[in-house]
Protein backbone atom coordinates (compact mmCIF):
# COMPACT_ATOMS: atom_id res chain seq x y z
CA UNK A 1 0.00 0.00 0.00
CA UNK A 2 1.24 3.49 -0.83
CA UNK A 3 1.89 5.96 1.94
CA UNK A 4 -0.35 9.00 2.32
CA UNK A 5 2.21 11.27 0.68
CA UNK A 6 2.75 8.81 -2.19
CA UNK A 7 -1.00 8.73 -2.81
CA UNK A 8 -1.10 12.54 -2.75
CA UNK A 9 1.79 12.70 -5.21
CA UNK A 10 0.08 10.27 -7.59
CA UNK A 11 -3.13 12.30 -7.53
CA UNK A 12 -1.32 15.61 -8.02
CA UNK A 13 0.06 14.19 -11.26
CA UNK A 14 -3.40 13.32 -12.57
CA UNK A 15 -4.65 16.15 -14.83
CA UNK A 16 -7.68 18.05 -13.63
CA UNK A 17 -9.89 17.60 -16.68
CA UNK A 18 -8.25 14.75 -18.57
CA UNK A 19 -7.64 11.04 -18.56
CA UNK A 20 -4.46 9.07 -18.97
CA UNK A 21 -2.98 6.52 -21.31
CA UNK A 22 -1.56 4.22 -18.67
CA UNK A 23 -0.97 6.36 -15.60
CA UNK A 24 0.64 9.65 -14.59
CA UNK A 25 3.99 8.78 -16.17
CA UNK A 26 2.40 8.26 -19.59
CA UNK A 27 0.97 10.61 -22.18
CA UNK A 28 -2.21 12.29 -20.96
CA UNK A 29 -5.17 12.42 -23.32
CA UNK A 30 -7.35 15.51 -22.97
CA UNK A 31 -10.83 14.10 -22.50
CA UNK A 32 -13.21 14.23 -19.57
CA UNK A 33 -14.96 10.98 -18.69
CA UNK A 34 -18.76 10.79 -18.92
CA UNK A 35 -21.10 10.75 -15.95
CA UNK A 36 -22.12 7.30 -17.10
CA UNK A 37 -18.52 6.13 -16.71
CA UNK A 38 -18.30 7.62 -13.22
CA UNK A 39 -21.61 6.05 -12.27
CA UNK A 40 -20.38 2.70 -13.55
CA UNK A 41 -17.23 3.06 -11.44
CA UNK A 42 -19.41 3.69 -8.38
CA UNK A 43 -21.26 0.46 -9.15
CA UNK A 44 -17.96 -1.42 -9.30
CA UNK A 45 -17.15 -0.01 -5.87
CA UNK A 46 -20.48 -1.29 -4.53
CA UNK A 47 -22.46 1.97 -4.83
CA UNK A 48 -20.98 3.58 -1.70
CA UNK A 49 -23.19 6.29 -0.26
CA UNK A 50 -26.42 4.85 -1.64
CA UNK A 51 -29.19 5.19 0.91
CA UNK A 52 -27.51 8.20 2.55
CA UNK A 53 -29.19 11.60 2.71
CA UNK A 54 -27.30 13.76 0.21
CA UNK A 55 -27.35 17.57 0.01
CA UNK A 56 -25.86 18.68 -3.32
CA UNK A 57 -24.42 22.22 -3.48
CA UNK A 58 -23.39 24.20 -6.58
CA UNK A 59 -22.64 27.89 -7.21
CA UNK A 60 -19.88 30.34 -8.07
CA UNK A 61 -19.17 31.78 -4.63
CA UNK A 62 -20.05 30.54 -1.16
CA UNK A 63 -20.38 26.80 -1.88
CA UNK A 64 -17.82 25.68 0.67
CA UNK A 65 -19.10 28.08 3.31
CA UNK A 66 -22.71 26.92 2.90
CA UNK A 67 -21.52 23.30 3.12
CA UNK A 68 -19.61 24.10 6.31
CA UNK A 69 -22.65 25.76 7.91
CA UNK A 70 -24.87 22.81 6.96
CA UNK A 71 -22.41 20.29 8.39
CA UNK A 72 -22.11 22.24 11.63
CA UNK A 73 -25.89 22.55 12.09
CA UNK A 74 -26.56 18.88 11.35
CA UNK A 75 -23.65 17.86 13.55
CA UNK A 76 -25.04 19.99 16.37
CA UNK A 77 -28.24 17.92 16.08
CA UNK A 78 -26.23 14.76 16.66
CA UNK A 79 -25.86 13.58 13.09
CA UNK A 80 -22.69 12.14 11.61
CA UNK A 81 -22.04 14.28 8.52
CA UNK A 82 -19.63 13.69 5.66
CA UNK A 83 -18.52 16.68 3.61
CA UNK A 84 -16.79 16.61 0.23
CA UNK A 85 -15.30 19.98 -0.68
CA UNK A 86 -12.60 21.60 -2.80
CA UNK A 87 -9.97 22.80 -3.13
CA UNK A 88 -7.81 21.75 -0.21
CA UNK A 89 -5.57 24.40 1.34
CA UNK A 90 -2.60 22.40 2.64
CA UNK A 91 -3.37 18.67 2.65
CA UNK A 92 -5.55 16.74 0.20
CA UNK A 93 -7.38 14.92 2.98
CA UNK A 94 -9.02 18.25 3.89
CA UNK A 95 -11.44 17.53 1.03
CA UNK A 96 -13.06 14.75 3.06
CA UNK A 97 -14.44 15.79 6.44
CA UNK A 98 -16.48 14.04 9.09
CA UNK A 99 -18.30 16.58 11.25
CA UNK A 100 -15.85 19.21 10.08
CA UNK A 101 -12.66 17.24 10.82
CA UNK A 102 -10.45 16.07 7.90
CA UNK A 103 -10.17 12.28 7.71
CA UNK A 104 -7.07 10.47 8.93
CA UNK A 105 -4.22 9.67 6.54
CA UNK A 106 -4.87 5.92 6.72
CA UNK A 107 -8.54 6.44 5.79
CA UNK A 108 -7.43 8.50 2.79
CA UNK A 109 -4.92 5.89 1.57
CA UNK A 110 -7.37 3.00 2.05
CA UNK A 111 -9.93 4.74 -0.19
CA UNK A 112 -7.20 5.64 -2.69
CA UNK A 113 -6.11 2.00 -3.00
CA UNK A 114 -9.72 0.83 -3.34
CA UNK A 115 -10.19 3.09 -6.37
CA UNK A 116 -6.81 2.13 -7.85
CA UNK A 117 -7.70 -1.56 -7.54
CA UNK A 118 -10.75 -1.11 -9.78
CA UNK A 119 -9.20 0.93 -12.61
CA UNK A 120 -8.08 -2.11 -14.59
CA UNK A 121 -11.54 -3.66 -14.21
CA UNK A 122 -13.09 -0.43 -15.54
CA UNK A 123 -10.79 -0.54 -18.55
CA UNK A 124 -11.98 -4.06 -19.29
CA UNK A 125 -15.66 -3.20 -18.87
CA UNK A 126 -15.38 -0.11 -21.07
CA UNK A 127 -13.09 -1.89 -23.53
CA UNK A 128 -10.85 1.15 -23.17
CA UNK A 129 -7.22 0.43 -22.16
CA UNK A 130 -6.53 4.15 -21.61
CA UNK A 131 -9.34 4.83 -19.13
CA UNK A 132 -8.36 6.63 -15.93
CA UNK A 133 -10.47 8.82 -13.62
CA UNK A 134 -9.65 12.51 -13.76
CA UNK A 135 -8.25 14.17 -10.64
CA UNK A 136 -11.67 15.29 -9.41
CA UNK A 137 -13.45 12.07 -10.39
CA UNK A 138 -10.86 10.06 -8.46
CA UNK A 139 -11.37 12.19 -5.35
CA UNK A 140 -15.16 12.00 -5.63
CA UNK A 141 -15.01 8.20 -5.81
CA UNK A 142 -12.72 8.17 -2.78
CA UNK A 143 -15.09 10.46 -0.91
CA UNK A 144 -18.09 8.20 -1.40
CA UNK A 145 -16.08 5.22 -0.17
CA UNK A 146 -14.92 7.15 2.89
CA UNK A 147 -18.42 8.31 3.80
CA UNK A 148 -19.76 4.76 3.44
CA UNK A 149 -17.02 3.39 5.68
CA UNK A 150 -17.55 6.10 8.28
CA UNK A 151 -21.29 5.39 8.44
CA UNK A 152 -22.43 8.98 7.98
CA UNK A 153 -26.09 9.99 8.14
CA UNK A 154 -25.80 12.95 5.74
CA UNK A 155 -23.41 13.62 2.86
CA UNK A 156 -22.90 17.26 1.87
CA UNK A 157 -21.46 17.32 -1.66
CA UNK A 158 -19.87 20.41 -3.15
CA UNK A 159 -19.58 20.41 -6.93
CA UNK A 160 -16.14 20.89 -8.41
CA UNK A 161 -16.98 22.85 -11.56
CA UNK A 162 -20.41 23.80 -12.85
CA UNK A 163 -22.93 21.11 -12.02
CA UNK A 164 -24.57 19.48 -15.02
CA UNK A 165 -21.45 17.57 -16.07
CA UNK A 166 -19.73 17.49 -12.69
CA UNK A 167 -18.75 14.07 -11.34
CA UNK A 168 -20.88 14.68 -8.24
CA UNK A 169 -23.96 14.80 -10.49
CA UNK A 170 -23.93 11.02 -10.68
CA UNK A 171 -25.93 11.25 -7.43
CA UNK A 172 -29.51 10.89 -8.62
CA UNK A 173 -31.60 11.10 -5.43
CA UNK A 174 -30.46 13.96 -3.18
CA UNK A 175 -32.79 15.13 -0.44
CA UNK A 176 -32.00 18.75 -1.31
CA UNK A 177 -30.12 20.75 -3.95
CA UNK A 178 -28.60 24.16 -3.28
CA UNK A 179 -27.32 26.89 -5.59
CA UNK A 180 -25.31 29.70 -4.02
CA UNK A 181 -24.38 33.03 -5.62
CA UNK A 182 -23.77 32.76 -9.37
CA UNK A 183 -21.30 35.05 -11.11
CA UNK A 184 -18.70 35.19 -13.86
CA UNK A 185 -16.04 32.56 -13.25
CA UNK A 186 -14.70 29.59 -15.27
CA UNK A 187 -16.32 31.16 -18.33
CA UNK A 188 -14.16 29.09 -20.68
CA UNK A 189 -15.98 25.98 -19.43
CA UNK A 190 -19.40 27.19 -18.28
CA UNK A 191 -20.34 30.00 -20.66
CA UNK A 192 -19.83 33.72 -21.06
CA UNK A 193 -23.06 35.00 -19.46
CA UNK A 194 -24.62 34.61 -16.02
CA UNK A 195 -27.57 32.87 -17.67
CA UNK A 196 -25.40 30.24 -19.35
CA UNK A 197 -23.47 29.61 -16.15
CA UNK A 198 -26.76 29.31 -14.23
CA UNK A 199 -27.93 26.66 -16.70
CA UNK A 200 -24.85 24.57 -15.91
CA UNK A 201 -25.32 25.00 -12.16
CA UNK A 202 -29.05 24.21 -12.39
CA UNK A 203 -28.10 20.89 -13.96
CA UNK A 204 -27.91 19.44 -10.42
CA UNK A 205 -31.64 19.94 -9.83
CA UNK A 206 -33.56 16.66 -9.57
CA UNK A 207 -37.29 15.84 -9.70
CA UNK A 208 -37.03 14.20 -6.27
CA UNK A 209 -35.71 17.18 -4.30
CA UNK A 210 -36.53 20.85 -3.65
CA UNK A 211 -33.93 23.53 -4.37
CA UNK A 212 -32.76 26.43 -2.21
CA UNK A 213 -31.06 29.19 -4.19
CA UNK A 214 -29.44 32.60 -3.84
CA UNK A 215 -31.85 35.09 -5.39
CA UNK A 216 -29.36 37.85 -6.11
CA UNK A 217 -29.13 38.04 -9.91
CA UNK A 218 -32.38 38.09 -11.87
CA UNK A 219 -30.81 36.40 -14.89
CA UNK A 220 -29.64 33.45 -12.78
CA UNK A 221 -32.83 33.21 -10.72
CA UNK A 222 -34.99 33.04 -13.85
CA UNK A 223 -32.98 30.08 -15.14
CA UNK A 224 -33.22 28.23 -11.82
CA UNK A 225 -36.95 28.87 -11.45
CA UNK A 226 -37.61 27.74 -15.02
CA UNK A 227 -35.68 24.52 -14.45
CA UNK A 228 -37.48 23.91 -11.14
CA UNK A 229 -40.87 24.42 -12.78
CA UNK A 230 -39.96 22.01 -15.58
CA UNK A 231 -39.03 19.35 -13.01
CA UNK A 232 -42.10 20.06 -10.88
CA UNK A 233 -40.14 20.85 -7.73
CA UNK A 234 -40.38 23.59 -5.13
CA UNK A 235 -37.81 26.39 -5.26
CA UNK A 236 -36.98 28.45 -2.18
CA UNK A 237 -35.13 31.74 -2.79
CA UNK A 238 -32.89 33.57 -0.34
CA UNK A 239 -32.78 37.28 -1.17
CA UNK A 240 -31.26 40.36 0.45
CA UNK A 241 -34.46 41.09 2.37
CA UNK A 242 -34.14 37.75 4.15
CA UNK A 243 -31.20 38.96 6.23
CA UNK A 244 -31.48 42.43 7.79
CA UNK A 245 -30.32 44.48 10.80
CA UNK A 246 -26.72 43.39 10.28
CA UNK A 247 -24.49 44.35 13.21
CA UNK A 248 -20.72 43.90 12.88
CA UNK A 249 -18.83 43.47 16.16
CA UNK A 250 -15.13 42.89 16.75
CA UNK A 251 -15.18 39.12 16.17
CA UNK A 252 -18.66 38.30 14.85
CA UNK A 253 -21.73 39.51 12.96
CA UNK A 254 -25.30 39.45 14.30
CA UNK A 255 -28.26 39.65 11.93
CA UNK A 256 -31.96 38.92 11.64
CA UNK A 257 -32.94 36.05 9.34
CA UNK A 258 -36.44 35.93 7.85
CA UNK A 259 -37.57 32.45 8.82
CA UNK A 260 -40.46 30.62 7.16
CA UNK A 261 -41.68 29.58 10.62
CA UNK A 262 -40.53 32.10 13.23
CA UNK A 263 -40.80 35.44 11.40
CA UNK A 264 -37.31 36.87 12.08
CA UNK A 265 -34.73 35.02 14.18
CA UNK A 266 -31.44 36.43 15.41
CA UNK A 267 -28.34 34.61 14.14
CA UNK A 268 -24.62 35.10 14.75
CA UNK A 269 -21.74 34.20 12.45
CA UNK A 270 -18.31 34.08 14.08
CA UNK A 271 -16.39 35.97 11.42
CA UNK A 272 -15.69 39.47 10.13
CA UNK A 273 -16.73 38.46 6.60
CA UNK A 274 -20.00 40.23 5.79
CA UNK A 275 -20.65 37.87 2.87
CA UNK A 276 -21.06 35.00 5.34
CA UNK A 277 -24.39 36.51 6.40
CA UNK A 278 -25.77 35.51 3.00
CA UNK A 279 -24.18 32.05 3.12
CA UNK A 280 -25.43 31.37 6.65
CA UNK A 281 -28.91 32.49 5.57
CA UNK A 282 -28.85 30.04 2.66
CA UNK A 283 -27.86 27.25 5.06
CA UNK A 284 -30.63 28.27 7.48
CA UNK A 285 -33.20 28.15 4.68
CA UNK A 286 -31.90 24.69 3.71
CA UNK A 287 -32.48 23.41 7.25
CA UNK A 288 -36.02 24.78 7.22
CA UNK A 289 -36.77 23.14 3.87
CA UNK A 290 -35.30 19.80 5.00
CA UNK A 291 -37.79 19.68 7.89
CA UNK A 292 -35.72 17.12 9.75
CA UNK A 293 -37.57 16.68 13.07
CA UNK A 294 -34.31 16.05 14.92
CA UNK A 295 -32.94 19.53 14.06
CA UNK A 296 -34.22 22.24 16.41
CA UNK A 297 -33.99 26.02 16.29
CA UNK A 298 -31.25 25.83 18.93
CA UNK A 299 -29.27 23.42 16.72
CA UNK A 300 -29.62 25.91 13.87
CA UNK A 301 -28.45 28.95 15.83
CA UNK A 302 -25.63 27.14 17.64
CA UNK A 303 -24.48 25.33 14.50
CA UNK A 304 -24.15 28.62 12.63
CA UNK A 305 -22.41 30.35 15.55
CA UNK A 306 -19.85 27.55 15.94
CA UNK A 307 -18.97 27.27 12.25
CA UNK A 308 -15.35 28.03 11.40
CA UNK A 309 -14.36 27.92 7.72
CA UNK A 310 -10.70 28.37 6.91
CA UNK A 311 -9.44 30.93 4.43
CA UNK A 312 -12.48 33.20 4.55
CA UNK A 313 -11.46 36.33 6.44
CA UNK A 314 -9.62 33.96 8.76
CA UNK A 315 -7.45 35.73 11.35
CA UNK A 316 -4.44 33.43 11.21
CA UNK A 317 -2.38 35.67 13.52
CA UNK A 318 -3.33 38.90 15.33
CA UNK A 319 -4.17 41.41 12.60
CA UNK A 320 -3.32 39.04 9.72
CA UNK A 321 -6.25 37.76 7.65
CA UNK A 322 -6.51 35.07 4.97
CA UNK A 323 -9.18 35.55 2.29
CA UNK A 324 -9.77 33.16 -0.59
CA UNK A 325 -11.72 35.55 -2.86
CA UNK A 326 -10.59 34.85 -6.43
CA UNK A 327 -13.10 36.40 -8.81
CA UNK A 328 -14.83 39.73 -9.36
CA UNK A 329 -17.81 39.10 -7.07
CA UNK A 330 -15.65 37.56 -4.37
CA UNK A 331 -13.26 40.52 -4.37
CA UNK A 332 -16.18 42.95 -4.24
CA UNK A 333 -17.54 41.15 -1.17
CA UNK A 334 -14.05 41.16 0.37
CA UNK A 335 -13.71 44.93 -0.14
CA UNK A 336 -17.09 45.43 1.54
CA UNK A 337 -15.86 43.55 4.60
CA UNK A 338 -12.54 45.41 4.68
CA UNK A 339 -14.36 48.74 4.45
CA UNK A 340 -16.33 47.81 7.57
CA UNK A 341 -13.43 46.45 9.62
CA UNK A 342 -12.20 47.94 12.89
CA UNK A 343 -8.64 48.64 11.76
CA UNK A 344 -7.23 51.66 13.58
CA UNK A 345 -3.91 51.67 11.76
CA UNK A 346 -2.76 50.96 8.22
CA UNK A 347 -3.87 48.13 5.96
CA UNK A 348 -1.44 46.14 3.83
CA UNK A 349 -2.27 43.60 1.16
CA UNK A 350 -0.46 40.50 -0.08
CA UNK A 351 -1.92 39.60 -3.47
CA UNK A 352 -1.51 36.90 -6.07
CA UNK A 353 -3.76 34.90 -8.36
CA UNK A 354 -3.78 32.50 -11.29
CA UNK A 355 -3.47 33.61 -14.90
CA UNK A 356 -6.87 32.33 -16.04
CA UNK A 357 -8.76 34.57 -13.60
CA UNK A 358 -9.94 38.07 -14.46
CA UNK A 359 -7.19 39.71 -12.41
CA UNK A 360 -7.72 43.04 -14.17
CA UNK A 361 -11.23 43.33 -12.70
CA UNK A 362 -10.04 42.06 -9.34
CA UNK A 363 -7.30 44.70 -9.11
CA UNK A 364 -9.64 47.44 -10.33
CA UNK A 365 -12.11 46.66 -7.53
CA UNK A 366 -9.35 46.43 -4.92
CA UNK A 367 -8.06 49.87 -5.92
CA UNK A 368 -11.43 51.67 -6.24
CA UNK A 369 -11.11 52.88 -2.64
CA UNK A 370 -7.85 53.91 -0.95
CA UNK A 371 -8.07 51.07 1.58
CA UNK A 372 -4.52 49.75 1.45
CA UNK A 373 -1.25 51.47 2.25
CA UNK A 374 0.53 49.24 -0.23
CA UNK A 375 0.42 45.83 -1.92
CA UNK A 376 3.04 43.08 -1.90
CA UNK A 377 2.77 41.02 -5.09
CA UNK A 378 4.10 37.52 -5.52
CA UNK A 379 3.91 34.60 -7.93
CA UNK A 380 2.11 31.46 -6.83
CA UNK A 381 3.98 28.17 -6.81
CA UNK A 382 1.78 26.87 -9.64
CA UNK A 383 1.99 26.42 -13.38
CA UNK A 384 -1.19 28.50 -13.65
CA UNK A 385 0.27 31.44 -11.72
CA UNK A 386 -0.15 34.97 -13.01
CA UNK A 387 3.19 36.70 -13.47
CA UNK A 388 4.14 39.50 -11.11
CA UNK A 389 4.81 41.70 -14.15
CA UNK A 390 1.17 41.64 -15.28
CA UNK A 391 -0.06 42.07 -11.71
CA UNK A 392 2.21 45.08 -11.15
CA UNK A 393 1.01 46.61 -14.42
CA UNK A 394 -2.61 46.19 -13.32
CA UNK A 395 -1.97 47.85 -9.95
CA UNK A 396 -0.16 50.73 -11.65
CA UNK A 397 -3.02 51.11 -14.11
CA UNK A 398 -5.85 51.15 -11.57
CA UNK A 399 -4.26 52.40 -8.37
CA UNK A 400 -1.49 54.40 -6.83
CA UNK A 401 1.14 51.91 -7.92
CA UNK A 402 2.37 51.52 -4.33
CA UNK A 403 3.42 47.90 -4.64
CA UNK A 404 6.48 45.72 -4.19
CA UNK A 405 7.19 42.50 -6.10
CA UNK A 406 8.56 39.33 -4.49
CA UNK A 407 9.68 36.00 -5.89
CA UNK A 408 7.73 33.98 -3.33
CA UNK A 409 5.00 34.27 -0.72
CA UNK A 410 7.46 33.81 2.16
CA UNK A 411 9.46 36.91 1.21
CA UNK A 412 6.29 38.93 0.61
CA UNK A 413 4.80 38.00 3.98
CA UNK A 414 8.03 38.68 5.87
CA UNK A 415 8.32 42.09 4.18
CA UNK A 416 4.83 43.07 5.32
CA UNK A 417 5.23 41.63 8.81
CA UNK A 418 8.38 43.71 9.31
CA UNK A 419 6.37 46.84 8.52
CA UNK A 420 3.24 45.92 10.44
CA UNK A 421 2.68 47.76 13.69
CA UNK A 422 0.29 46.59 16.40
CA UNK A 423 -2.76 48.48 15.08
CA UNK A 424 -2.16 47.57 11.42
CA UNK A 425 -3.87 44.81 9.42
CA UNK A 426 -2.45 42.56 6.69
CA UNK A 427 -4.89 40.98 4.24
CA UNK A 428 -3.74 38.04 2.11
CA UNK A 429 -6.10 37.69 -0.86
CA UNK A 430 -6.56 36.66 -4.48
CA UNK A 431 -6.46 32.87 -4.49
CA UNK A 432 -7.16 29.88 -2.28
CA UNK A 433 -3.82 28.56 -3.53
CA UNK A 434 -2.17 31.62 -1.96
CA UNK A 435 -4.09 30.98 1.26
CA UNK A 436 -2.79 27.41 1.22
CA UNK A 437 0.80 28.53 0.64
CA UNK A 438 0.67 30.92 3.59
CA UNK A 439 -0.96 28.36 5.88
CA UNK A 440 1.68 25.77 4.96
CA UNK A 441 4.43 28.36 5.50
CA UNK A 442 3.15 29.31 8.95
CA UNK A 443 2.61 25.66 9.87
CA UNK A 444 6.24 24.85 9.01
CA UNK A 445 7.38 27.85 11.03
CA UNK A 446 5.39 26.58 14.03
CA UNK A 447 6.77 23.05 13.63
CA UNK A 448 10.32 24.40 13.51
Automatic annotation (TrEMBL):
Gene3D superfamilies recorded: Mur ligase, C-terminal domain, Mur-like, catalytic domain
Family annotation (SUPFAM superfamilies): MurD-like peptide ligases, catalytic domain, MurD-like peptide ligases, peptide-binding domain
Pathway(s) this gene product operates in, as recorded in its UniProt entry: Cofactor biosynthesis; tetrahydrofolylpolyglutamate biosynthesis
Keyword Nucleotidyltransferase: no
Sequence ranges assigned to domain Mur ligase C-terminal in this UniProt record: 311-431
Reaction(s) the record says it catalyses: (6S)-5,6,7,8-tetrahydrofolyl-(gamma-L-Glu)(n) + L-glutamate + ATP = (6S)-5,6,7,8-tetrahydrofolyl-(gamma-L-Glu)(n+1) + ADP + phosphate + H(+)
EC top class, as a word: ligase
GO molecular function: ATP binding; metal ion binding; tetrahydrofolylpolyglutamate synthase activity
GO cellular component, as recorded: cytosol
UniProt-listed InterPro entries: Folylpolyglutamate_synth, Folylpolyglutamate_synth_CS, Mur-like_cat_sf, Mur_ligase_C, Mur_ligase_C_dom_sf, Mur_ligase_cen
EC number in record: 6.3.2.17
UniProt xrefs under PROSITE patterns: FOLYLPOLYGLU_SYNT_1
Keywords attached to this entry: ATP-binding, Ligase, Magnesium, Metal-binding, Nucleotide-binding, One-carbon metabolism
Keyword Transmembrane helix set for record: no
Span of domain Mur ligase central: 57-284
Listed GO biological process terms: one-carbon metabolic process
Cofactor list: Mg(2+)
Family label: Belongs to the folylpolyglutamate synthase family.
Protein name, per record: tetrahydrofolate synthase
Originating organism: Kineothrix alysoides
Species lineage: Bacteria, Bacillati, Bacillota, Clostridia, Lachnospirales
